[in-house]
Amino acid sequence: MCGIVGYVGTECCAHLLLSGLRRLEYRGYDSAGIAIANDDGQVQVCRAEGKLTNLEQAYRQEPFDGAIGVGHTRWATHGRPSESNAHPHRAGRVVVAHNGIIENYLELKEKLTAQGREFTSETDTEVVAHLIDEAWNPSTRSLHEATCEALEEIEGSYALAVISTENPEELVVARNASPMVIARGRDCAFAASDVPAVLDHTRRFIFLHDGDTAVLRTGGIEVFDSNGEPVEREVKRIAWDPISAEKQGYKHFMLKEIHEQPARITDTLRGRVSVDRGEVHLPELGLDEQTVQKLDKIVFVACGTSFFAAQIAKYMIEEVARIPVETDLASEFRYRNPLISDDTLAIAISQSGETADTLAAIREAGERGARTLGIVNVIESTIAREADGVIYTHAGPEIGVASTKAFTTQLTAVAMLAIKLGRLKGTLDVAQARELIEALRHVPAEMENLLQDSSLYEKLARGYSQAKSFLYLGRGNQYPIAMEGALKLKEISYIHAEGYAAGEMKHGPIALIDRNMPVVVLSPRNSVYEKTASNLEEVKARGGRIIAIGTEGDERLDAFSDVVIPLPKVHEFVQPLISVVVVQLIAYHIADFKGTDIDQPRNLAKSVTVE
Ligand code: F6R
Questions:
Q1: Boundary-marking domain end, from 214, 246, 278
Q2: Atom of ligand 1 nearest to the CA of 401
Q3: Which residue, judged by its Cα, is nearest atom 10 of ligand 1?
Q4: Based on the structure, what is the number of domains in the chain?
Q5: 325-378 tens-digit pLDDT
Q6: 13 is catalytic
Q7: Which range marks the domain in which residue 490 is found?
Q8: What spacing in Å lies between the alpha carbon of 401 and ligand 1's midpoint?
Q9: In a domain, 233, yes or no
Q10: 609 pLDDT exceeds 90?
Q11: pLDDT band for position 77 (50/70/90)?
Q12: How far is the CA of 406 from the centre of ligand 1 (A)?
């Protein structure tokens, strides 16, 4: 989720790197740095914690320049935000900026330490710099060859930009599951994790493929495929203006973030699940078998969308690990004199890790003796720091105020936690764990398919955006999705909406149903399908307009519904991760049709740090 910019050419490049980073600041902003080599091969590095202005200030105090360099703006994944963890990282003659996650970095770090290598940061990236330096003998091989050799040892995702003291004419880049673009200019070449970084200098880009590496020089660019063979990649012209480039061509950050979800879920799973062994690795959890066996209950505290993730956690954990789960709105928990024991595990779910009520609630639980855990997106946020254990979601910075990718990565973390607890508790055998992990790993591909076509949502928006109020219904693990769907619609389109448990409808809300009230029913094929389908028939009998979200090919839904949105067939355990994308898109397209301020809806803030 970080940003990279690189340059090699004939001009001094500090200003270019800093202005490129400014264009990428929306991607990550807990620290930043630049490294520049001069003609004599001396590389100077300047890094600073915090926003880019801190780096600019530090650079102004001791300026340096040269015609080849790399810059980086960081959103921490391994290691706290600090100057020493900021990129670029140097090891011997090699300087590296990296986006992504190196899964086997601990193993590699151990090996390199045994070889006498000293580390100065807590990052996964530093191992890459050491590996390249270790593999490089400039008299027999190029920096590119050494980089390729080092990459053979790496597992994980990366976009890398590498420069060196020995060869200040070449910038080497590599890509695997993390974007990297390169471009030729007049007597120069550029590299960037994202187009906006260098859009002021060129509009013609090569989008590297996974496994590609490239060598950039003043005189040109060479690209190699994953077998190390030279390859021609198409040059694409980008017509976006810098602002829409930040949104990668999407109209709003929210839409970009909805489409990013498959990749962010993959990042959240990366290195943490093994289908073969039926295992989930969450070492940062700090929970052993004995502690889990003794747990009397788990209490989740959270607010807003994160609270709905907690409600789904209840379904997942009780089903899989057979441990009682309570969920509390953080603002209620802190004032209700809750029953907590030393054998209670209290879990705070928070994208920002700073929400005032959630923080106060988890502190309260800790003071009453509970062991505490955070499921948090922002590294080193207060909840992450204060909890006894933490599971980081890897959603990256979420710019749209309405939570989307933060939510689905929370669900991914919660699903992994449920499987882990089930294994520790002994309620889940290896074969069952494998089945659930397999189901989780399929989610990104299924989501990708679901995101292919927006025409149905655009049509739906035209037909329904005049409605004054919507009802969302769901049962089981679709009930929290019904509430999340209603919340999304409210916050970005300003249309009133209620999320209800489908079985509760006849206890009140059924009185509201008439032709003017669209009813969104979440009814995929699952263990409560028959029950939900009969609620749907009750709505139909009262003249309601039904928008059904159900499993593809379900003819029964077709017969009762005005609109049917098909979902792929997936395991019931992961159905919420799929169906939530549909309610996100319904809300987005209705709001877009109405022309509201989708990324910054009125009266809302991204991080609610006051009570
Ligand atoms: C809704 C939304 C909010 C947040 C809530 C909690 O789209 O974004 O409801 O989920 O304010 O925020 P975090 O997760 O940062 O604690």
A1: 246
A2: 8
A3: 305
A4: 3
A5: 999 999 999 899 999 999 999 999 999 898 989 999 999 999 999 999 999 998
A6: no
A7: 455-594
A8: 8
A9: yes
A10: no
A11: confident
A12: 9
Dihedral through CA 117, CA 120, CA 123, CA 124, nearest 10? -10
Residues 333 and 363 in one domain: yes
What is the SS3 assignment for 537-581?
Answer: HHHHHCCCEEEEEEECCCHHHHHHCCEEEEECCCCHHHHHHHHHH
Mutate to test the pocket of ligand 1, among 383, 390, 608 (most ligand atoms within 8 A of CB): 608
Q: Are both 431 and 324 inside the same structural domain?
A: yes
For 388-421, what is each residue's pLDDT tens digit? 999 999 898 888 989 999 999 999 999 999 999 9
Instruction: Identify the DSSP state of 476.
Output: G
Using the atom order of ligand 1, give the atom closest to the CA of residue 304: 9
In this predicted model, what pLDDT tens digit does every residue of 469-480 receive, in sequence order?
A: 999 999 999 999
Among the listed residues 51, 111, 297, 606, the single catalytic one is: 606
**Pick from 246, 276, 306: which residue ends a domain?**
246
Q: Which of 2, 13, 46, 303 is catalytic?
A: 2
**How far is it, in rounded angstroms, from Cα 406 to Cα 261?**
9
Examine residue 611 and state whether it is found in any structural domain, yes or no: no
Residue 80 lies in a domain: yes
Q: How far is the CA of 307 from the centre of ligand 1 (A)?
A: 8
**Does residue 77's CB lie within 6 angstroms of at least one atom of ligand 1?**
no
CATH of residue 506's domain is 3.40.50.10490
> Does the beta carbon of 351 lie inside 6 Å of ligand 1?
yes
Cβ of residue 608 lying under 6 Å from some atom of ligand 1:
yes
In a shared domain, residues 287 and 230: no
Both 299 and 395 in a single domain? yes
Asked whether residue 602 is domain-assigned, the answer is no
